[in-house]
Design a protein that fits this description.
single chain, 245 residues, alpha/beta, Purple Acid Phosphatase, chain A, domain 2, six-stranded mixed sheet, 7 helices
């Protein structure tokens, strides 16, 4: 089975539609690792499309914040302002659906977590030390996570910090997650707002903005980092008009 893995859409419907259009007929099921809303101007549209697309959907910290499930006082000024707008915009149907979601789950034998499984709401995985803490906290062969917006892989073949290798999501790069003795933590990157230097949104790239995702073959265990581009100019213009940019 080929599984589309998406994360951190953040109310950017154009980006999500771009990913789904680029991957048409290329996957059997889809999972979302959370943060459907926040930042972007299309929260209801994104929630609706993810609901219709994904078999498993996690809650991200922005999804929890959208209905008051967590305090936003620790959010950055930009994130807090966007969340206040999101709360004023989303429908009661969206709120009720977001309340049903959890920040950690499973798909077959794969662990899914919005952030680090140590604390899936708040904790990030940026370093080998972060990855080792997650690997020690839970037993899994493969964990797919989001939250950082950075396509990345942390692979352990051994037991020590020095045994962890790190890569940063080169497009079409593959990882054999079922290799004997291997444990993997993989982040597909952000659909809506990539933060790695190569793909972060800039005014001159809005006509071909990047969206990141991944494809997992559950039978072979083969993971592939993926990227597509889409036109973000209308979305960015609306964000400016709404004070979200």
């Amino acid at each position: 089975m080929r599984v589309l893995v998406i994360s951190d859409i953040h109310g950017n419907a154009a980006a999500l539609q771009g990913v789904l259009g680029a991957t048409k007929n290329q996957w059997d099921q889809a999972v979302c690792l959370g943060d459907l809303v926040g930042y972007g101007p299309d929260p209801d549209e994104c929630v609706d499309l993810v609901r219709r697309t994904c078999t498993v959907i996690l809650a991200g910290n922005h999804d929890l914040a959208a209905y008051g499930g967590i305090d936003i006082s620790d959010f950055s000024h930009h994130a807090r302002r966007a969340m206040e707008w999101t709360r004023s915009r989303i429908t009661s149907s969206t709120v009720q659906f977001l309340k049903t979601l959890h920040p950690i789950g499973t798909f077959q034998d794969t662990l899914l977590s919005h952030g680090s499984p140590v604390d899936p709401v708040w904790s990030y995985i940026f370093s080998a030390q972060d990855a080792l803490e997650a690997l020690r906290d839970r037993q899994f062969s493969l964990c797919l996570f989001g939250h950082s917006h950075i396509p990345s892989a942390f692979i352990l073949e051994g037991k020590k910090l020095s045994d962890i290798s790190i890569s940063y999501g080169e497009v079409d790069a593959t990882i054999h997650t079922k290799k004997k003795g291997r444990r993997s933590l993989i982040n597909p990157g952000s659909v809506g707002f990539p933060r790695d230097a190569a793909d972060a949104h800039a005014e001159e790239t809005l006509s071909h903005a990047a969206a990141r995702f991944g494809i997992l073959d559950t039978e072979s265990g083969l993971w592939q980092f993926k990227r597509t581009t889409y036109d973000m100019r209308d979305t960015a213009q609306r964000m400016v008009q709404l004070g979200l940019w």
